[in-house]
# Entry
Amino acid sequence: MTVDPAYGNSSGYFRDPSNGEDLSVDTPRVIECELKDGKFIWPQVASADGNQLLKIVYRLFTDEEKALYKQYRGYDSKPRVKKEKSEVISHPQVSENLVEEPEEQELVKVDPGTDPEAAVTLETLQQLTLSDTLYGICNIGGLYYVMCGSSKNPRKVYYIPRGLVPESEFRRLCNSE
# Structure
């Protein structure tokens, strides 16, 4: 059975082919939907001219017909509960007092040789003084690094963040040839 796509699809009709009017859920059924010996009897309506019976598409089933079809297909008879999407949206808390007094900050001087978390370490400063060649500056992940090394071992290049290189050392590396 081939169905004109303007009137139906492979599962049934949604429009009457004799007059072109849309079928509805309320269209009277000539053959009622039922389960008979484990088989599903598809609901059918008569065409407007009365010459043929039309199987209707699932979307035109009544609630009872849909429940019977789901039972036939082995779906759970319990109504589906939609899961709520849990979105975690964090909004910054806006203080009522928008003008806040800044807290007193204490300046702490860190000795690079004693603190392993310090920005400039003693090893970094020693490497800068031993370097005599500037190979270039590169941008890695948004940070600029000075690529430097020694002419005695040209295969070893050290990447030192540009902000940690004192200006005098940077000028010395730039002027060396």
